[in-house]
Design brief:
Layout: E1 3-7, E2 15-19, E3 36-37, E4 44-47, H1 49-67, E5 77-80, E6 86-89, H2 92-98, H3 104-119, H4 124-143, H5 148-168, E7 171-172, H6 178-189, H7 198-212, E8 213-216, E9 219-222, E10 227-233, E11 241-243, E12 245-248, E13 260-269, H8 289-312, E14 317-320, H9 326-334, E15 338-340, H10 345-355, E16 359-360, E17 372-382, E18 385-391, E19 399-405, H11 408-431, E20 433-436, H12 440-453, H13 460-471, H14 473-481, H15 486-498, E21 504-507, E22 512-515, E23 522-524, H16 525-543, E24 547-550
Parallel strand pairs: 10-19, 13-14, 13-16, 14-15
Antiparallel strand pairs: 1-2, 2-3, 4-24, 5-6, 7-20, 8-9, 11-19, 12-18, 13-17, 17-18, 20-23, 21-22
Helix pairs in contact: 1-3, 1-4, 2-3, 3-4, 3-16, 4-13, 4-16, 5-12, 5-13, 5-16, 6-7, 6-11, 7-11, 8-9, 12-13, 12-15, 14-15
């Protein structure tokens, strides 16, 4: 057998040196000392503290990029993509989604924000900033020679304890308590660029969520996807409204079709209203004008049969996912049917929920039971474009919110604010639990976690203590973004919480410490627990990485020509090795 010793001869690749035993000298009585490459040339590798430092630095950079957007006085970011499209927002999930991030560890922070957005719709910036601060605190522990697994274990204990503490300071809320729900929606929209009309938008959000709330087995469910947000430039944000039905950004396909249909019988068709082409390639030879006329007449007859089938079913409004032939439009208009084409699949599904219609894939099978109902369908001009309003549905399971604004950027900002409000109101109705905002739960967590850390033995105590320190990044950032004295604010907050005032938080508008519950600054419990859990999991995952190997790709081992021996076999490769086996592996 050979003995192996490993020498690092360059930054990016390891080389194995097989050395023969003294009992097995070569022919000349000399030792063989030739390198064997196991990583492709150009492969980038860093390990140990270097890898940990690189990952932590990248994650902190992403967290710092969104940190200045936190809170009512947070700043906005202007994002310009490769096509020159401009997005102005302070929504953490939107910012991180638009940023072109390459570093793998930084992408984990982006995933934290995306998960937070998908699960609860708000708190994306909080989760990202918290993950960055947990890694910042871990960096101090690593410099004290504390092992990453010990830090990870301590962080996990702290996160579990934090969730337990949060549940102990929650307040209950009822679905019928609209005043509280409006305050929660208002809190979620604060700082999203729609402060002047936040009260109006909050009421719209609560009304829309109530419309789609369902109760199953004594538990409430809110399907936010059943709420459609349609944005239109023109007017002001105060002109926004909730439509108990559907708003479709389309217009009738023929000018002679009716603009208003009462007692609408609605057909939803997912196939084109056109003559059907042959399923196989066919060639038709026409040798006379009479044959051509017969061919055209047959096409017209086919279209007339298709439209007659729709009309005979009793439908007086048609929404088609595909196209509608010009001749078919003529027949439908003549019969007084309002038809719309090229409707999005998502809109078709919502229309089915709102009207009770079945989505038909075969026109030949359409009949009266497949039709949906609505009080009326109207074509209205909103701004510069026509839109269709489907209202008066008997039991609508889908509703629409029309968001208005003076410019496209204002409308986009209002849309993001409404989306956040819808999500948080939905979460509160499902969980019926809330906590106060303004940094009050984070200060309480920090205080109680320090007390918990004092009861622990071993090095995990240090990690839990650092976790407690990291919690204070939220009130510290709120104060910093408002231009307040951070140290003074933290001292006041700690003092109030040590006296038992768990609702004490920062009023960033006036710079005072106030009771957040009395002033209506409220957040869903799930927003906080999800942010803490997601941030902790991401920080632990990054901390546990001690080796980064980045390959440039390609096929097979890449060995420099000067290192090759006769026959093209890499030096040190043993006889009898399987084909494709990397050299140096025994």
């Amino acid at each position: 057998m050979q003995n192996l010793k490993i020498n690092l001869i360059c930054k990016d690749s390891y080389v194995y040196y097989p050395t023969m035993n003294e009992q097995e000298p070569n022919i000349k009585g000399q030792h063989i000392d030739q390198p064997v490459f196991i990583l492709r040339e150009g492969t980038q590798r860093s390990s140990g503290k270097e890898a940990q430092k690189s990952n932590i630095m990248a994650a902190k950079a992403v967290a710092n990029a969104v940190r200045t957007t936190l809170g009512p006085k947070g700043m906005d970011k202007m994002l310009v993509n490769a096509f020159g499209d401009v997005t102005i927002t302070n929504d953490g999930a939107t910012i991180l989604k638009e940023m072109d991030i390459e570093h793998p560890a930084a992408k984990m922070i982006v995933e934290v924000a995306r998960t937070q957005d998908d699960e609860v719709g708000d708190g994306t910036t909080t989760a990202s900033v918290l993950a960055g601060e947990l890694l910042n605190m871990a960096e101090d522990l690593l410099e004290q020679e504390i092992h990453p697994t010990v830090i990870a274990s301590g962080y996990l204990q702290a996160a579990q304890k934090a969730e337990e503490i949060l549940k102990g300071i929650t307040k209950s809320v009822s679905e019928e308590d609209d005043d509280i729900l409006i305050k929660i929606a208002n809190t979620a929209m604060t700082g999203k660029g729609a402060e002047g009309s936040s009260e109006q938008l909050a009421k719209l959000a609560v009304k829309a969520v109530h419309a789609v709330t369902e109760k199953k087995n004594d538990k409430k469910f809110v399907d936010i996807d059943s709420i459609k947000i349609e944005k239109k430039v023109g007017g002001s944000i105060n002109d926004s409204e909730v439509i108990e039905g559907m708003v479709i950004d389309k217009e009738r396909v023929h000018p002679y079709m009716p603009k208003h249909v009462k007692e609408a019988r609605i057909a939803l068709i997912s196939e084109p209203v056109e003559y059907k082409k042959t399923e196989v390639d066919a060639e038709i030879n026409i040798t006379s004008p009479e044959q051509l006329q017969q061919f055209l007449d047959q096409e017209e007859t086919m279209l007339k049969n298709v439209t007659n089938k729709i009309i005979d079913s009793g439908a007086n409004v048609i929404f088609c996912q595909k196209g509608i032939d010009d001749m078919a439009q003529h027949y439908l208009a003549k019969a007084g049917v309002l038809a719309v084409r090229r409707v999005k699949k998502s809109d078709m599904e919502k229309l089915a929920l709102a009207t009770g219609a079945n989505l038909m894939t075969n026109i030949e099978e359409i009949s009266d039971p497949d039709l949906g109902g609505a009080g009326q369908v109207d074509e209205k001009k909103i701004g510069e474009e026509n839109m269709l309003y489907v209202t008066g549905c008997k039991n609508p399971k889908a509703v629409s919110i029309v968001v208005r604004g003076g410019t496209q950027h204002v409308v986009d900002s209002a849309e993001r604010a409404v989306e956040d409000a819808l999500h948080v109101v939905g979460v509160v109705i499902e969980d019926e639990k809330l906590v106060t905002g303004g940094g009050s739960p984070e200060v309480e967590l920090s205080l109680r976690l320090r007390e918990y850390a004092a009861t622990l033995k071993g090095r995990q105590q240090l990690a839990v203590d650092k976790f407690a320190d990291a919690m204070e990044i939220i009130p510290r950032t709120l104060a910093d973004n408002a231009g307040l004295d951070t140290l003074d604010i933290l001292v006041q907050l700690r003092s109030r919480h040590e006296m038992g005032d768990v609702n004490a938080g920062l009023d960033v508008m006036n710079g005072y410490i106030i009771d957040m519950k009395e002033n209506g600054v409220l957040d869903p419990l799930r927003v906080k627990t999800q942010a803490i859990n997601s941030a902790t999991e991401a920080a632990i995952m990054i901390l546990r990485i001690d080796d980064i190997i980045a390959s440039e790709g390609g096929n097979g081992p890449d060995v420099p020509p000067e290192m090759m021996q006769g026959g093209g076999i890499p030096p040190g490769a043993m006889g009898g090795m399987p084909a494709g086996m990397p050299p140096g592996i025994i």
